[in-house]
Amino acid sequence: MQYFPHAARLSRRRLVAGAGALLLLASQARAQSGERLRESLVKAAFLHKFASFVEWPDGTFARADAPLRIGVYGDDLVWKDLSELARDRDRDGHPVIVTRLGPGDSFSGYHILYFKADSPGRMADLLQQVPEGVLTVSDSNGTHPRGCVISFYLEEGRVHFGASVEAAARQKLRLSQRLLSAARMIQGGLDALRLLA
Q: Which of 10, 22, 175, 193 has the fewest C-beta atoms under 10 angstroms from its C-beta?
């Protein structure tokens, strides 16, 4: 397995601060109008940041500067905001390439896949098509989709995320304890956490 550089030394505070810094940069242009930060922009900032807290299978990146590829399915606002955030901003030395995906597109060749689906059944269908070694992230209503590694949900108008260490293990990924400590919900319990210890 390989870590993104310095991922093991990052703390929960740095995760929150890093995402906050991205959000601050992205929101400066909106500050004068007083427009509230969009939900899609918060999700985009997290998607850009998550990779620093994942241990990937050996050989995931052919070179130290190989691109990090993120696919976005079913949410054009997140795709647009993430594309803007990723422009000229690498992730731990990896340039970030963001692709909008639709029905019939292959999910191969991506490191992170974000899904927004109109039903639990459709979400399950999408997740079944994901190859091994991919960090899956979904939108949810607070119920973490089975088989998904990370899911976003709203609580009191704010975006939070939950994580499944069992789904991560099935994908051959290891989530940093720092990321897990920032998650509001964790699926898998102590047995799953021991699997990743």
A: 193
Res 12: pLDDT: 45
Confidence at residue 93, expressed as pLDDT on a 0 to 100 scale: 87
Both structure tokens of 136 = 């899956």
C-alpha to C-alpha distances, 196 to 83, 137, 193, nearest whole angstrom = 32, 19, 5
CB atoms within 10 A of CB 87: 9
Q: How far is CA 187 from CA 145, 151, 162, 163, 195, in A?
A: 10, 11, 8, 6, 13
Pairing label, strands 112-115, 135-139: parallel
Both tokens of 77, joined, read 């606002």
φ and ψ of 127, to 5 deg: -65, -30
pLDDT of residue 157: 84
Q: Measured in whole angstroms, how far is the alpha carbon of residue 124 from the centre of its chain?
A: 18
Beta bridge partners of 106: none
CB 29 within 8 A of CB 41: no
- Which single residue is written with the structure tokens 């210890």? 197
